[in-house]
Amino acid sequence: MGENPAKNHYAQLNQGEENEMEIFGYKTQGCRRALCIAGYILSCGALRLLFYWKPEWDVWMNCIQCSLEEADIVLLRTTDDFRTYSHKTVTWISVSAFIKSRSDYPTTEEDSIFSKAIMKPSLLVRTIQVQKIRYVWNVYAKQFQKVGVLEDHYTCSAIHDKFGSGLTCNEQNVRRVMCGPNTIDVPVIPIWKLLIKEVLNPFYMFQLFSVCLWFAEDYMEYAIAIIFMSLLSIFLTVYDLRKQSIKLHRLVESHNNIMVTVCRNKEGFQELESHYLVPGDLLILKEGKTLLPCDAVLVSGQCTVNESMLTGESIPVTKIHLPQADNLKPWRVYCAEDYRKHVLFCGTEVIQTKADDRGVVKAVVLQTGFNTAKGDLVRSILYPKPMNFKLYRDALRFLMCLIAFAAIGMIYTVCVFALNGEETGEVVKKALDVITIAVPPALPAALTTGIIYTQQRLKKKDIFCISPQRINMCGQLNLVCFDKTGTLTEDGLDLWGLLPSERNCFQNIHSFPADHGLPWGPVFKALAVCHSLIVWEGKIQGDPLDVKMFEATNWVIDDSSGHQNEDQGSTHATVVRPGLQATTAPVEGITILRQFPFSSALQRMSVIAQEIGGDPQAFIKGAPETVAMLCRAETVPSNFESKLLLYTAQGFRVIGLACKSLQAGKPPAALTREEVESDLTFLGLLIMENRLKRDTKPVLEELSAARIRSVMVTGDNIQTAITVAKSAGMISPTHRVILVEANKVPGSSSASITWKSLEENKTEDYRSLDDSQTEPGVTLALGSGQYHFAMSGKSYQIVADHFRHFLPKLLLNGTVFARMSPSQKSSLVEEFQKLDYFVGMCGDGANDCGALKVAHAGISLSEQEASVASPFTSRTPSIACVPELIREGRAALVTSFCMFKYMALYSIIQYLGVLLLYWQLNSFGNYQFLFQDLAITTIIGVTMSFTRAYPKLVPYRPPSQLISPPLLLSVVLNILFSLSMQIFGFVVVQEQPWYSQTDIHSACPSVNNRERNSSSSLGLPGLRDGAHEQTDNGYKSYENTTVWLLSTINCLIVALVFSKGKPFRQPIYTNYVFILVLIGQLGICLFLMFADIDDLYSKMDLVCTPTSWRISMVGMLAVTLAVSFLVEEAVIENRPLWLLLKKTFQYHSKSHYKRLQHVLEQDSAWPPLNETFFSDSVAVTVEGNMGGHSNPTFDSSEDSL
């Protein structure tokens, strides 16, 4: 090749995207492959299993490194913290059937990946498929590129020119072969596949190893019990996975095969099945409802679409065709954030089409299959983002420690038994036995039970969870972002008043509901026509704001007018007419000729309307500040700003209205949006009321009391958002609000940022209306946390782009983020996560999907399909589910820790007991093991997790790390207490006057003969050393009886001591089942200790000891309980003590936000009120003059990127 293979061996796939991966090229080598196959055979499949768990080892052993161009295997590695590996085989596709000669190369394909991927002269294409997405090898760029999408580099005019007439049959065939079928195919996974995948889990493999060992030692009963429990666990998991697989299959199968009409270049219209569609196809949208089988961009006509599948809102959305702009910018860049208003998304339903003067409604296919919006949603469920939670990492480390313990025990066992001349087979069995004792096979199952119980409790409270692993994460949440409309406030808006304006003066306010209707005039006409409402299924449907506004006029939409099919454009327009209760109007009706839909980037919508028999007029409504800027200055009242502030500060939602007369000569279709939305006449302000939900304030107060930050992220006006934040209790009346404004400097690439105190912006006459204004003499504090930043989405974006070093500091006290787009919401959540916050996001599903997905805990208040992406869904549309989820999360997290500590201690107690007895070449008997494993630990493992969550949220969180000083100290001390007690019992029993190493009946001579006879007549199955039984040299000994009884009751002690109650769970006595189980188990253990039933003692391998010794053992256990309980309560659970130790040793939190908080507390110049910084000089200003403003953590990480 003449190229350095190492250089071309590596590349990045999906650079900058959420599913970014590193890709490495490898070539299979025959001799390596042969050696590996030999290894599989010699290891009885163990090597193959290891390669299944570690796919990278498989590739490294079987293949040699090569350039990606030569590779037949590619190794993929995720770029997240987990660095997960997977491998894919490179496949070849032939397109020779469609390209017979040079003339068959289509001209439209020259700059397309469909042309650049074909190798000449072989006419083959190299492909790989990763997470359902197909990639082809670009021969010229020497990289793998995604297919199934129309490239982004096309301009608006290029899309119209190249694809406006449709693809030729040949082009379509080539694309179809490369892209594959246009289906979101999620096959129902066969049960056998799910079973194999589950069984090959390392945990079950360890259990299989343990069970085989126990069968070899005739330890049948527990082996059978473990097999039964494991099978039950496997079947439950498989059943759950199968159910999810069927649900997902049903979710997507509906639109996988729909009949569609496409336009073929030179061949006209053609009907075909939707799975044949390819990017670039020209789709014809007919009258009536249509389910979209792909993502497409509208190139002619207009559509009304139900996008509830994507947004969670069943509100019809109007889509308009892509402009034929003669611009060199790619079409998505040219349309900026508004590109969505031209795009029809897969899975959404077209409910109405309106053709323009060019005839039919057409759309060019943009994306197919899993590349579509719905495909992306399905992939996010199939391949969820792995969770980086310390608990699971620490659990693995803890297991490693237990394995290290086991290794020490194995060496000790081998030494003891080998030196005493035991058979090699026996020595190996005893040594391997130590692993199954030290590492509890039931640990993962025990940890899962707590999560399952929590999930059931949440279900009872109408909170549903599709990602159970995230429940523990909810226990760590310390910041929750809330959407405003529909989440904190009621979903609908009520009309409160209309403030009309005439001759640049505001008139008297018209209040709603009013006895008299609105007078006829331009304002009335604006309310009647400036909307995107449609009649759907006999009801007026659309944005709730539009519906309320239109209903106030008492007019009706003439449904029949929208379905005529004459050639003139006007016949396809919507007509509104006076209703039965409407006030008399001098017109028969008004025709809406053209709509420019609402754009979140432009913050407005407009329509061109015409009175029947009159001249056309334009009507605009939107954010008041935006509308006023588009109006002629002489029509805007001079007190516009103070009036706007007056109403927004009271929490009202305010809409600006404007109009303009248009020239009769020019057809509406020929006018651009810029021409229509300029030189307007200001008509007035529409004031709407958005009430807080009843639960909002108490819930936010509860979170605040628990020191959990609440942040508002909304698409609404910043002033309205601030007022709602104040009335909801997010911002305290004594705290100051600082408005952060960032703007791009006109005519340059730099930007400016300014901090303004909101109180200083207010006019004198407005002060009296501001609820948050403090009384004279009460100063507004500016200490740490005594101020709140508020900023708009535009400012947030500029800060993120130009003032990156300020962003962490702004987020530290940022409480209100207004006018935020969906992508900005997701970005904000991720920025909070970078500061080491555990972030919850609560939204109603609309526009919040992305943020719900990236948050540690996304809680959707919508039951639409969009909520599938959210880990949690609340059936009750109230934020009361947030503290509920945090409570249950904290309880589940504490339960996991308790269970972990208990399982670790139980295995170490048993391990220590066995190692002590190994010293005398003795061990526990099978029934002794069975009693400890099954009757004690299994039942405790099941019932310990029944304890419910504590109803009050305390102002601190449970620890998130297993490897934390209090937890480690607790485990280590309890191990020492157990070890001390067992060694003490082991040594002291040998000092007793009645003790004999050879005669196990010396302590109770009265039962000597009786015991001897009964034990010899018992042919007990399942005992590990049957040969020794007859001479009583097997397991029976005074040491065995002492150590076993002490260790068994010690397991009950640690279960009680570790069962935490307050402050995260209810007191342990409320878990009646667990308490009854402990009492019952203790009763059985004491019965075994004090009963002299010969047959029972024989079966349990116990020997009779004097009553005084039994009482001594009870004394030892009582001392251990007292010491253990005292240490746990006085030291481990003593929060003030640990806080004092932290202070003494000057321990500072490693969390970025805590460190930053500490830095800012020392910085007297922060926040820099009434100061402006410019992005080109900011480095000098910040680092040179105000060192405190530079955050080294973030500056350094920025530089390294």
Written overview of the protein:
One of its GO terms (molecular function) is P-type ion transporter activity. Its EC number is 7.2.2.-. It is an enzyme of class 7 (translocase). With 1201 residues, the protein is α+β, with helices and mostly antiparallel strands. Helix content is 42%, strand content 18%. It contains 43 helices and 42 strands. The strands form 7 sheets. Strands 20-41-40-39-21-34-38-37-35-36-42 form an 11-stranded mixed sheet, sandwiched between helices. Helix 3 packs across helix 4 and helix 9 runs antiparallel to helix 10. The longest helix is centred in the last third of the chain and has 38 residues, at 881-918.
Largest sheet: 11 strands, mixed
Mean pLDDT: 80
Which quaternary structure do these chains form? single chain
Gyration radius over CA: 37 Å
Distance between the termini: 33 Å
Strand content: 15-25%
State the strand order across the main sheet: 20-41-40-39-21-34-38-37-35-36-42
Number of helices: 43
Total strands: the figure is 42
Sequence stretches where pLDDT stays below 50 over 5 or more residues: 1-5, 562-571, 760-781, 1008-1033, 1177-1201
Shape: globular
Judged by helices, strands and strand pairing, the structural class is alpha+beta
In helices, the fraction of residues equals 40-55%
Enzyme class: translocase
Protein name: Cation-transporting ATPase
Keywords: ATP-binding, Magnesium, Membrane, Metal-binding, Nucleotide-binding, Translocase, Transmembrane, Transmembrane helix
Domain Cation-transporting P-type ATPase N-terminal: 146-219
